[in-house]
Amino acid sequence: MLVRQRRGLVELVIAIVLVAIPFVLPLLDSAPNTVNRVLVWGLFGIGFDILFGYTGLLSFGQAAFYGTGGMVTAYLLTRAGFPHVITALVIGMVSAAVVGGIVGLIALRRTGIYFAMITVAIGEVFYFVEFNPLSAWTGGENGLPGVPTPSLHLGFINIDFTSGWHLYPFIAFCYFVGIVIGLRIVRSPVGAILSAIRENPLRAAAVGHNIHGYKLAAFVIAAAYAGLAGGLLGVLQAFMPPEAFTFDTSGQLVMQTVIGGRGTLIGPLVGAGVWLFLQDFLQATLKLGATWKLVLGLVFVLLVCFLRQGIVGGVRDLVMRRSRRRAASAPAAAGAGSADITEAEAAKIAEAMPAQHHANAAYSGPILVATGLTKHYGGVIANSDINFTVNRGELRGIIGPNGAGKSTFFKMLTCEVPPTSGSIVFEGRDITGMSVTDVCQLGLTKSYQVNQLFNKLTVRENITIAALAELRGKMRLDMLRSPDSIAGLRELVVHTLELVHLTGRIDTPVAQLAYGEKRRLEVGLALASSPSLLLLDEPLAGMSPQERAETVSLLRSIARGRTLIIIDHDMDALFELAERVTVLQEGRVLVEGTPAEIKGNAQVQEAYLGGVHEEAAP
Amino acid sequence: MLTWSNFISQFFNGLALGALLALISSGLTIIYGTLGVLNLAHGAMFMIGGYAGYAAYQWSGSYTVAVIAGTLTLLVLGVLMERVVIRYFYSRPPEDQLLVTFGLAICFVEAIRLIFGSQSLVVPAPKIFAGITNMGFMLYPTYRLAVVGICAVALAVLFVVLYRTRLGLIVRAGIEDSVMVDSLGINTQRIFMVVFGIGAMAAGFSGIVNAPVVSLTPEVGEMILVQTFVVVVIGGVGSFPGAVIGGLIAGEIISLTSMVNPSYAYVMLFAAMTLVLMVRPHGLLGARGRD
Asked: Which of A56, A109, A305 lies closest to B100 in CB terms?
């Protein structure tokens, strides 16, 4: 967030620091090689931070790509006699990225701890493969000595980056390019989606992003950075060490990133600085010998326990808290409450953002036809043989006692769970068995019964993520593009926020919203994908009478230009809103009709009142 | 050389390794299943078990004392670790749990290195299991046969605890749905501590039992941890039977591949894991849902 506010500032500061280092650090008696190694680790860490800090995928196998990039580069430059160092580095980077893509396909089949375990195993396999089957190419346990350093021939001048401070400009330049690209990536639409995946992968998929594709992209990016860093390691040491492949390498990267601060991009560099200088200090000055690692291990454990955001994150939080306090003490706290808009205005906004999607533009029958929809969970029958048709433009209500199978029914309609049998046809197109992401892209989405928001992000960022899926499709790798340049994004976000009455809370993190506001944001997320058919699962649940009245008018205004299906227990509201009501009971359709018909229906009364009539009758 | 006797002896090696992996992995898997914490320090615990046993052996000269010492040390360490650190991480995101146990693993390894040094140490096999057994069709080191037996007994004990006691019932219920167990009025806090202790004990016990087979170094746990992960991924996270079957499969893959070409042992193990992930993403006996 800090990064986003002051664009270009971070890059400038980094550039100044990088230029200043060779003038300042020699005065402090720092070894140039330590500085160079810090930069290599920092570069390695940029990619890892995109993977872990931004996307939330903790890999313990990054050494595989570091080693691969390093070995390919070193092999080209030593055994293969390839003359050009910079090209060799690029080839090493690309090979690491390719290998990363293949490994990612396997590792990303699972998430969470499974992912962590698989990456550990994969890292270890690379280590063994490097040591044994491929030792003819990699030098086995001897590594590859004699890696040359780069030089630039610009015609009028030759620059040789030899070693120490002479090599520093080359590595510093690589780091700078790496960080500039990294910053662009995390500020791009792709970066926003990666954060969304970290916060709530389920919802990121449900608003229409191909999260598997984006995760794979993050994995490949991390592998590419690792590959370049590995290549530079060989150049830096004039030797490609086989230890680059060890689990220790992956572990050190994880620790440095956490010490420095995850989700900051420069954190890994800071962490590497702390790590390597502390190591030098503990070993050389304090004569601690091998104990240095125990000290660093303890430091790491304490940081994880007490300073979760690491050094950079801690400093950032401190700065933000201070600036927030200053902002809070300022008298200009006006406009905090949401500027309420009238229903007529809302209607105007709603008409300005009509449903965009069409699964089948030429189609003109009922928008949704479900036939024989059945869902079994083991022996439990949640839904049984439901036939359900909704016409375009309709506002349909679904009621039913608890356990009637309403939510399961919605989950099947949005393809979150596959039906045991039966079919779903949306705008004339069979969507049975499609993914929730694809269905959302076709224009069918829902708001959840239990809020599914991106909790650490702001209201604006939440809506932006949903809007991005609407405007960019389910997968696009515009990683270097600024979100500002996407046509219509701002308008879509602003309109959606106006519609759900959250304009006054635009930069508030979700965690600070009141319950009613969260419920409206929940609806807003679904709305931002401009669906032609919107399913709302208990939008009124748990609301105060005032919030309820507001939400009812919100629902009425968004019903213009789209088809709505609403589940709720609030029958008064539903009978007021809906044109037709379907009653579910025990997983079946009990009856369907206009609100008046439903109110007077004896079966419905019995379902809700549990057959009191018979028992009461003498 | 591919001969019958070679095959059978490697098969037994696989059985010994597999039984050991099964035992360690069940420790890891019941901790994860009940507490929801993947303990990256599990390998380090295995290693400490070996060293604690080594120290006890130096002092007493008795293998039995060493095994008891290794096991009890880890029970105490496990309970302490749960009380002092892990319990504060239940409500934190899973990656923080990974990070803190990873950090603890490093501290454990380095502390042991500080105390015992980096050179490899040996705990000799007890006298009754020393030497070589003539099995009629081949000669085989007695202690390795004993390892199979010892691990089988330990697994049987674990099975009885998990499937025939009240505690086991609660643990298995907790693996299914820990929120529900909590709301039934069972003190999950204490159960968590006990389970972590038992899981750590399984690692420590395996550590000292393995010490006469492979010499002790501070890094011995890291290798085992990776193998354990493969076992758990193959068997299914949180499944005790899965850990046993996965352990045996992994042990056999490593041993039988080593017979042909040792350098491919890991590649084959990994290939098996990949295959399982492709065909059954939740492991052979893993339940859907937990992730």
From this structure: A305
